[in-house]
Fold these 2 entries.
Entry 1:
Amino acid sequence: MPKHPDWYFRIREQTGRREAWHEDSGLPTERLLQAIWMHQRILRDQLQTCDGRRLEVLHPGFPRPEGGPDFEKALFRVDGGPVQEGDVEVDIHARGWRDHGHDLSPRFARVLLHVVWESGDPDANTLAVSGPGRQPPFTLALKDRLDAPLEELLLWLDRGEATVWPEALRGACHAPLTRLPPGELEAVLEEAGLARFEAKLLHFQARARAVGWEQALWEGLFRGLGYKHNTWPMQWLAERRHRWWEPGMAAETLQARLLGLSGLLPEETRSLPPDSARFLRKLWDIWWRDRGPLADCCLPRNAWRLHGVRPANHPERRLALAAYWLAEPDWVRRIEQWGTLDLPASALVPTLLQRMQPGARAFWSRHWTLRSGSSTESEGWIGAARVTELAVNVVLPWLGARARAAGHDALWERVRQRYLSWPSAADNAAFRLARQRLLGGRPLRGSSARAALQQGLIQILRDFCDHANARCEGCPFPAALEARGGSVPENGQPAAFRRGSGPAR
């Protein structure tokens, strides 16, 4: 157990409350609403615009930290109509559109959806607010459409990506972190990693309350297979699994449906290699028959960000992998059984990899994508690095949430220890930035080379660095680190973090 089990949660909550609320009005901040929209922590199947139209969000859009609308290239349908693409602006009040000058700025000309806090704002109930400039055609109020209580969301949300700092600039917490004895530094990062793990548990609890445990797992897996840029189209498909999946379906049928639904199934075969053309025709033979009843679940191809995606991570290949998992009738059961095994740390990755690796398959063993040429060597489906990402972000939080909801203390402790002992993930830009900012570029080695501590570094960036300027002005974390050896004010552990609180049923 950590030396100070509540310390990190208390310090983190202080920052969260300061960043989340307007003290004078009691309203959530725009920053919090942006995070809720980005993570889509809303009742996605119950959305209505302020003038009563049904809204389906296919993709929330990509954040634009450089200015302009908050999100660009969002995709949605209104009243079951055609897919519309446009930008999204987030404000507390509907009048913020005019007050901030968006109605007259050409940078906001593509905004189709205005996301606000509550429909009680008179301006939110009309399509055309009086004024000289352009108004967004649709307005959505979030207040009554959250998928969990707001206090719970405050503890879950990552609150955006960490600000990109120059590599030579060290944070104010670098000095107190480096002065900590190695064991104490490890404990700080472990506690922060547990805070991140807890946030993921809360997400699965909330989703399981709405759709059940198995569906919550599939949604998490699809998001994980979407990598950085394609999580939302993957989640869109997973949320409609009840429409396109039935027990006992063959993997090839599922591939045809998923690739057809995604808009990624090529329509032209003449330019493809012969073996790719043959396989594509087989998929089309299936999809021609099935696509009529599923037309309202289809995504346009531009829902995906494909530029710069490595062939091994291409959505076509990841959807094919998911189809193989879904075709195995006991696949989820095998994951559950894996969670109960008594395994040493050295066996964690190989044993989970074994359960997630479908093995050699005729077409996909020789092709990265539907358009790629044949390879002379067999192409692997999933490697240790991706298994670690799925374990830390999906499988272990899901297993932990289930164990906690069932009151299974022994299994919960096993999952928790498995998370704490999981080997480190592959290095990436986020981890390198965290090490540079917090540890002066020092790598995590020895007992510190664990995924939970990497997660802790990222969580500190999200919780503190992203809420201070380059000089760390106003950040409470450096002083809290200095005082760690002494007393920390007893503010009480947040209710949502207490064991057994709010279990999903």
Note: Residues 18-155 form one domain.
Entry 2:
Amino acid sequence: MKNFLIATTIFLITSKAKAQIDPELLRNPQTKTDSVRMNMDAVYSRPFMQLGKLPVALGGYIEANYQYLNENGVSEGHQFQMRRLTFFVSSTISKRIKFLTEIEFEDGTKEINIEFASVDLEIVPLLNLRGGVVMNPIGAFNQNHDGPKWEFVDRPIAATQMLPATWSNVGFGIYGKKYNKNWVYGYELYLTNGFDDKIISNSENRTFLPATKMNRDRFEESFNGIPLFTGKVAIKNRKIGELGISYMGGVYNKFRDEGITLDKKRKLNVFAVDFNSTLPRLNTVITGEWAWVNVDMPDNYTEQFGRKQQGGFVDFVQPVVKRPMFGFEQAVLNAALRVEYVDWNKGTFKSTGGNIADDLFSLVPAISWRPTPQTVFRINYRYNWQHDLLGNPPSHLAAFQVGFSTYF
């Protein structure tokens, strides 16, 4: 009887909720150009459902896939993966105070992360305050990473293996936008907790910024007491597209402990450029991002650890068929291609003058089908060429992937 009552309550709530989905939030930048929203709006550009008279709105997305990988003739066979399950909860506390959180479960429950949990105070369009767990706006993918928005099973390598994708920290900042006819200008400025020395002391044995995500203490204390600064400016023309320039920098090492000086302050600087555009007539969507990383390395570290890194990606998505399919009125069939490159160690060996390799180049052709703008079924073929530190002949990885992702 208890289970019956619970099931009935859930059914009644969700039945009421379906009629209250805001259709404006179902817009997808990969399938339909939005003339107003920018990458900085990605955290709110999602479908939410108001549950009856509850003061909160709920949403989320799911990603799952099958893949078969072969690296240099060796394969682990057929693999099924539950990449992630993400929940959104938002609330309009008052007319100009909003709250939103994003909680993600990766690989089943292997990792559980609070990726965003902030309160926004809207003063005027050009000046708003944000505090809590914020998503550092370096590049565009870090904020605009939802699976249903992309035609590819894997996230970009540069965003996940060079930059720490879904990188968020506790902090405060300001943001705003200004509109002028066909132009939109936006900015974000934040001070947060930041990186730690795991970026150069990790199991990867290379300079590896994503390793710092393992430090859960960053949500309650700073590793060295120096705030990480992240800033971004962006400009968008409603007919041309959006261009963003961002910077993230701060001290990553513990230079002082209990008043004793251990080392000098060693800085980490990241610069990124991102863009997106839709070609007229063809409706080809082009999305790209490129980033540069500079790390002040201790003198006792070998050249195996890169002082400079760079990498990025560019996606081409071409709608091929737009018409009702199988009872879905807004169905779209896309052909897509991702080109990506990462150099984890840009430079030369001091002893020989030879180039330090440790790089990767990848091509990912894809076919995707969107029965609705918020759901995507995708077929990808990935081929990677990866050089080791010494630039020996590259290892080859080929992967066939089939998956889906959808908002709910």
Note: Residues 1-33 have pLDDT under 50 and may be disordered.
